[in-house]
Structures are given as structure tokens and as C-alpha cells.
Design goal:
Elements: H1 5-9, H2 25-33, H3 47-52, H4 54-57, E1 64-66, E2 73-75, E3 93-99, H5 104-116, E4 119-121, E5 124-126, E6 130-134, H6 140-153, E7 158-161, H7 165-175, E8 181-185, H8 190-200, E9 204-207, H9 212-224, E10 230-233, H10 239-254, E11 266-267, H11 276-288, E12 293-296, H12 301-314, E13 327-331, E14 340-344, H13 347-359, E15 364-369, H14 376-381, H15 387-396, E16 407-410, H16 418-424, E17 429-432, H17 440-447
Parallel strand pairs: 3-6, 3-12, 6-7, 7-8, 8-9, 9-10, 11-12, 14-15, 16-17
Antiparallel strand pairs: 1-2, 4-5, 13-15
Length: 450
């Protein structure tokens, strides 16, 4: 049962230590009651209090894990409706559907293509998260054979899709320790599917295509059988019904604390569209509002890259910019007489500058200063990218140990710092570079002499 802020406050240490980020324990308790923060954020909470506050500590949307080890997908666990309120924590899994009615060789070739796709974005590597295997043929043996082959070829998180408990049982035995999502418990088979999910320790999808009220009733039946890790399929497939249902589910979970809707959602954008472009657009809508697992029927880099980029942008903390580790980075095998360019540790700034240096075929050193993840002008305006910090970085990273000169190229927007920097770095020659990263290559070829 949900607890009020005052009830939660009674269990807190009442030290007002502020480590949780709130000025008082009472303010923290109010936020816990609103499901805006987990009770575990209190550093001094006793074990007895944790047990007493278990219901209050549980997130309004259950955290569900499918898969195992480092390749697992974690979805749910969200506490806000909108990203700017705090942040979204667990990005939706993007999985590719395979059907056992297709030839095995064709499916395995597709698996290899998907598994081999990898793209770098702001220093992180991304790929598709797994596969959804559908018993499209109705043949349990063919279903189990495909599951076994995929598990051996590319052991990834799996969604196993069949309405037949016997076929699902055979497939789960072939999935081994991959802990797939069992899809799906329906009004006709929920008892058998629940027992299978329990026996194999797997999360279970619950599907009811006739409204959220019936879905909630079916979820309660499944939960009463001891299943905690549940994924919802409300049945909406097109743009409007998907947006409406997923928003309603999120509101019911967060605002009304309605437990039967407090689970992540699985969506199938390919079933609500007629072409790959629309499928990609609908999947993008579902990344933003509010899917947990998205099953794609088509795969190509042109579909996957925009979705991965959108997901990265939405599922990052808006209050904590993506940062690079400060340091001295070699770009294109630089020598002792290569230029040293200066930039901030905001990831997008770093990769813009590094990319232009690399494409210019002008080997360089890139000195990344710690600006707490802010871009050039923002960091300068905040006093986090000044002459003192740049001078300190040249010594900290031992620039003179890598080059045989004393010259730096600073961003063109920081021309005002040239005089101050020459005072901080006595004997150094400070060059004011271009204002835009795209002009770096041309600037260095004209102005730099080794």
C-alpha cells in the first residue's frame, strides 16, 4: 500500500544530512511518496526501516530484466512522466523479429547481419539489443530449432513469441540461461504461460487487445500467481492508439499508483504500419512515449542509426552532459612537431573537433580540458574554461613530454584569452584557431609550420 510523506518520514534518520540532494529528511520523504526518488537514496536508512518501507521504495514502474550478463536489457524503473522533470533511466530495448516460417539459413544470415552491426556515437558503441523469435509456422519443433540456432549463433536477449504453451516449453529449454521474455500470457493461456515463466525464471508479457481494463485484470491474475517481472502489451498498434495507451499506462502508474499498470510496455511498430519508413517513425514515437521493448520487423543501418541516436538523446540526464575523460588525445598518429589543439570535454564538442582533425589528414594532438561537460562558449561564460585552467591542463597532461614545441591552438571563440594565456604560459605561442571546427583543417594547413 502507498504511504504518505509523513508516514515515510517517521522511518528516516532525521539528520538532514542533504546527501540525498534534498535540504531536509521531510522534503526527501515527500519526494519518495510522490515516487520521484527511491528510498534507497537515503545513506543512513536502517535495514529495519528499509523493510518497513518496501512498498514505498518500489518504483511505480517495475524494473524488468531480460537476458543475462552484460547483454541483458533492463526496462522500466521510471519515476517521471517527462525527461526534464528528472531523467529517464532505462532506454527501451530494440529487438529484431525473426519468424520460424522463414528458412533457417535465411534467419541465421539475418542474425549475423544484425549482430555484426555496430555504430559509435559520442564515444559509445551501439547495436541492436536482441531478437524476437515468433512461432509463425505453428510448428513447435521449428520454433525450438530456430531458438537453439539463434542462441548458439548470437547469444542475445530474446523475446519468445508463441500462443502455444507446448511450443513455448520446448523453446525455453533451448534458450538455456538466456532468460528470455515469454510472450505472451492471454486470457486463453495465462495459467500455463505463468507456470512456464515461473519454472524458467523468465519475465512474462501479458497481452489483452480489448482495453486497459481487461489488461489490468489479467495482470492481477498473473501477479497473484507470483510473477513479479511483467511486461504489458495493451494491443494498440497504430500511431494514435499506441500513443494514447502508452501515455495512459504511464499516467496510471505514476500519478495514480495503479499497480496493475506499473510495468514496462512492449510494442510492435511494424504491425501498425505498411512500410519501413512508417515503422521507423512509429518506433521513434514509441522511444519517446513510452515503450520498454520495441520489436522491429525490418533492419537496416538507415533505420537503426536514427533510433539509436534518438534513444541516446532522450535517455541521458539533461542535468549531466555527456562528457569525455580530460586528457591528451592523439588524432591520426601525430609526431613531436604536430599541433596541439585545445577543446572542452563536452562529448559533442570533442567529437566535432576530433572528426574534423581526422578528416583533414593533419595529424594533431587534442588537449581536452575538464569543463564539467560544458561546450566552449558555455564553459567560458561559466568561468570553467579560462586561461588558468588551460595552463593547468598543459602541465597536468605533460604536453611538453609529447611535443618538441610550445604552441597551442585555442578555439576562435576564445580569442579574448590569448593575452592571459601567454601570461600563464610564459614562452608559449598561442594561436587563435577558427570559430568553427569544420575550418580546422584549412587553418592548420595554412598556419601551422612543424
Amino acid at each position: 500500500m502507498s504511504m504518505t510523506g509523513v508516514q515515510i518520514y517517521k522511518f528516516l534518520p532525521k539528520t538532514n544530512c542533504k546527501i540525498c540532494g534534498f535540504p531536509t529528511c521531510l522534503a526527501f520523504a515527500m519526494k519518495v511518496a510522490q515516487k520521484s526518488i527511491a528510498i534507497t537514496e537515503c545513506p543512513d536508512l536502517s535495514e529495519e526501516s528499509k523493510m518497513a518501507l518496501e512498498s514505498a521504495a518500489r518504483p511505480p514502474i517495475q524494473l524488468v530484466t531480460m537476458g543475462a550478463d552484460e547483454k541483458k536489457i533492463e526496462v522500466g524503473g521510471e519515476v517521471v512522466m517527462f525527461r526534464h522533470e528528472k531523467t529517464f533511466h532505462h532506454p527501451p530495448g530494440l529487438v529484431i523479429r525473426l519468424k520460424d516460417s522463414a528458412p533457417l539459413e535465411e534467419n541465421l544470415k539475418r542474425v549475423e547481419t544484425v549482430a555484426g552491426y555496430e555504430v559509435e556515437r559520442v564515444g559509445m558503441m551501439f547495436t541492436a539489443d536482441g531478437f524476437a523469435i515468433e512461432n509463425d509456422s505453428g510448428d513447435g519443433a521449428a520454433f525450438a530449432k530456430l531458438v537453439a540456432a539463434v542462441a548458439e549463433t548470437a547469444p542475445s536477449p530474446l523475446v519468445l513469441m508463441s500462443s502455444q504453451p507446448d511450443a513455448m516449453k520446448a523453446a525455453l529449454e533451448k534458450a538455456g540461461t538466456l532468460r528470455p521474455l515469454v510472450y505472451a500470457a492471454t486470457a486463453d493461456n495465462w495459467s500455463d504461460m505463468t507456470e512456464l515463466a515461473k519454472a524458467h525464471g523468465c519475465p512474462l508479457a501479458v497481452a489483452a487487445g480489448d482495453g486497459l481494463e481487461n489488461l489490468a485484470g489479467l495482470v492481477e491474475q498473473v501477479a497473484d500467481k507470483g510473477i513479479e517481472n511483467i511486461v504489458l502489451d495493451p494491443g494498440g498498434r497504430d500511431y494514435l492508439s499506441s500513443l494514447t495507451q502508452l501515455t495512459q499506462i504511464r499516467r496510471l502508474a505514476l500519478k495514480n499508483n495503479f499497480r496493475p499498470m506499473g510495468y514496462p510496455v512492449i510494442t510492435f511498430p511494424g504491425e501498425g504500419t505498411s512500410n519501413t519508413e512508417d515503422e521507423s517513425m512509429l518506433a521513434g514515437q514509441q522511444v519517446a512515449k513510452y515503450a520498454g521493448i520495441i520489436v522491429l520487423d525490418h533492419f537496416s543501418p538507415s533505420i537503426m542509426y536514427p533510433l539509436l541516436t534518438l534513444r541516446l538523446n532522450i535517455y541521458t540526464d539533461p542535468q549531466k552532459p555527456i562528457q569525455m575523460q580530460p586528457g591528451l588525445y592523439p588524432i591520426g598518429n601525430p609526431k613531436e612537431d604536430s599541433p596541439v589543439c585545445v577543446t572542452t570535454n563536452f562529448s559533442l564538442t570533442y567529437f566535432a573537433v576530433a572528426g574534423e582533425l581526422e578528416s583533414s589528414a593533419f595529424p594533431s594532438w587534442l588537449m581536452v580540458c575538464d569543463t564539467e561537460g560544458l561546450s566552449v562558449l558555455t564553459a567560458w561564460a561559466a568561468g570553467k574554461f579560462d586561461a588558468e585552467r588551460i595552463a593547468k591542463a598543459t602541465k597536468e597532461f605533460n604536453i611538453t613530454g609529447s611535443v618538441n614545441h610550445q604552441r597551442l591552438v585555442i578555439p576562435g571563440h576564445l580569442a579574448v584569452l590569448r593575452g592571459e594565456l601567454e601570461e600563464e604560459l610564459s614562452g608559449w605561442d598561442i594561436l587563435v584557431g577558427p570559430r568553427e571546427a569544420v575550418d580546422l583543417g584549412t587553418f592548420l594547413k595554412k598556419r601551422w609550420k612543424g
